[in-house]
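pinned: reference chain
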Amino acid sequence: MALRWKQGSLTRAMALVVALVVALAGGLSSAGTALAESDFDPATHPQVRAMLDTLSAQGLSSQQLDDAMRAASYRPQVLEAMNHAAERRLRWDQYRDIFIQPDRVAQGVAFLQQHREALDRAQREYGVPPEVIVAILGVETRYGAHKGSHRVLDSLSTLAFHHPTRGDFFRRELMAFLTITLGQGVDPASRYGSYAGAMGYPQFIPTSYQAYAVDFDGDGLKDLWNDPTDAIGSIANYFSEHGWRRGQAVLVEASGPATPPARLTFNQTEPPSVRVSELAAAGVRPTAGSLTPDDKVMPLALDYADGHVRYVLGLDNFYVITRYNHSHLYAMAVATLAQRIQLALEAAKT
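pinned: its structure tokens
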């Protein structure tokens, strides 16, 4: 028996068919997009192919490079994490409490005592005090206990080809990472780090690894993933290369008005450029140290939950710490942890 359709029913049926086709097409399109995002295969990804051709021309194995990128996976969570860094959204007291706790100080003392010989040698060669090197390790990885849970290959591949503004930067980091790992005979897919691709004890990004890592224990390998001695020497070398001043303090405490003077700019991680005399004219004065009116500093105004402000004057070595992480909060956490570790060491001697 033939089916007879009313005109309205036929129209509705055709509309349903069209809607179903559109929905299926959209689903296939979404699936194709997801597949493209997750696929870093150089055979189908022209940008990956071009990057690997550059590395191959520098002497790396084409087969190893291709195999590495075929193993890379798209991780959208690293893009999300880039937008929620703690340095961008926390007060000083909130940020401080993440890193400055009694157990982290005690662990820092233990690490310093365990690696005293390497730390003292780093100070002799590079001028960087042991407690500062240890504080970097304490803030970055809890002295090597937490080196990161993200596959570096996945993080850097995702950022290199999907970050909306910094793709070029992360492609350079990815190229450096592949050069380091393959050059050391290491499977790139086996290394873990931060969501932004920082690696090992000191959380160096790959280009910093290439530029500043040193073989501090003389075993023929610059190993920041597993060797704390190499990490100690590499951090000291990093600071030295960025202008660390042997024997100089990191910061000086200051006093000032309840509200930071509008005529001054605070918390800018730039080389010290504000004269002490200019600060004094605005009511901000050092409470310790031997600064002269012509000395230049980096003025900091640190906020607390109760609304009060702590004034600190960053010196050249404070600025050097911000070269490790371009945040005044980060540099304050390192300086504070270093001070607490030093005080705990001195207390242990009495």
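why pinned: Strands lie at 150-151, 192-193, 251-255, 274-275, 285-286, 296-303, 309-314. The chain is about 55% helix and 10% strand.
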